[in-house]
Structures are given as C-alpha cells and as structure tokens.
What we know:
The protein contains eight helices and seven strands. By secondary structure, the protein is an alpha/beta fold. The chain folds into two domains: 202 residues, Rossmann fold (3-Layer(aba) Sandwich), CATH 3.40.50.720; 31 residues, no CATH class. Helix 4 links the parallel strand 4 and strand 5. The radius of gyration is 17 Å and the shape is globular.
Amino acid sequence: MAQSRVAIVTGAARGIGAAVAKRLAEDGYAVGVLDLTEDHCKDTVAAIQQAGGTALAVGADVSNADQVTAAVSKVAEELGPPAVLVNNAGILRDNLLFKMSEDDWDLVLNVHLRGAFLMSREVQKYQTEAGWGRIVNLSSTSALGNRGQANYSAAKAGMQGFTKTLAIELGKFGITVNAIAPGFIETDMTAATAERVGVDFEQFKQGAAAAIPVQRVGQPEDIAAMASFFAREESGFVSGQVIYVAGGPQD
Length: 251
C-alpha cells in the first residue's frame, strides 16, 4: 500500500458521509471532511478529533471544477496525498416528471455525477503516482427506479456506469473503484422525504422496515462498514462492483 493514509469524503457534514469519515478515521486515515462550507464540517471534524483521529474541514462545491482543485490541493498540502476518495455528496430535488424543473434536474445531476467526476479526476492524479488508491462511489437502490426521483435515479444509475468504467481505466495503476447502493437509511435526508410526503418519520421508518427482509431500516454506520472494507488493502481484488446495502436482495 502507498505510504499515504489520507482519505477524502465528500458530503461529510452529516448522515452517511459523516459516518464514513468517522469510520475511516477509526481505521487510521487522516480524513479530509469535505462539504459545501468549512463551517458545515465542524461537527464531524470535532467528533473525529475527540476520538483521537486526524481530520481537516474543507469547504467546496463539488460541481465547481476550480473549487474541487483547490479543495484536493488543500488536503494534499495539509494532510498528505489522498489515497482514498469517497464520493458521497448528494442532494434531493424530488418531483414527478411533469412537475420537475430543469434546475431540479441539473442541480441533482451536477452534484452527484459531475461532482464525482471532478473529484475522481483530481484525486486519481495522486493515486496513480502512488500506485495505490481506492475510489468508493455512493449509488442507491433508487438507481433501479423510484417514483418522483427521475433526476436522483438517473444520477445514481449513472454512478454505477461511472464506477465500472473507472475500474477498467484505473485498475492497472493499483486503484480499485466500487460503488455502494444503500437502501433506506435513517438520515436527515430520509426524514425530509417523510416530511415532503406528509408522513410521520417514525411511521415512515416502520413502513419501510416492514418491507425489508432484515426487518429494520439501515443506519449510516451500515454504509460506513462497507466503505471501510472497500478502502482496505485486502479488498484489492474487488473492483467495478456495486454492492446493495439494503437489508435484502434487490431486483
């Protein structure tokens, strides 16, 4: 493995991203905690530091190429060259197709797909030079289709094709690229979805759990555990895969 033990997690201010950042810190990585502003990252950074880890708050809009370049350079200069990248940043702009605006389409595709593209293009420079790297992309069960999420579903399906292509291109440089597709995870984002559809969040979770084979909804730590595996040395023969972390099989 490369000497560098630095990871970058996007969208790491809360939810899945925060859990992944904390888990990678526990695994021994110095973590660049990236979100829209540095201030958004302070809770995640504080939690990592209080647990004895190393973390750096970095503000950037992942859909902006100049901000991505500056953010990755900051991590490389202050923590070291990044060996692991977790592309988790994402937003929701749910609506049925006939009510979905062009802005709602563009915003979701830009943050998820353009963001993952820009971040991966920037970080792979360090990974290829080191001859070792891990890229983990966040997809979703919504990639299989979900009412009211034409934009989000398209973005998350796109993440799977992006993952498989990067795995082919970067494998010879010692870099693996995999995707995690979460099912229902208890986060602020799913709470906002419940509010949007006018359902109490506890009832929303109970309804979701009843349809999941393991009879519970997922926690951010469930996704962090999968990201931890993909970031390890011993996962080096696993690449181009999409793992559904959803409490049961997906169609």
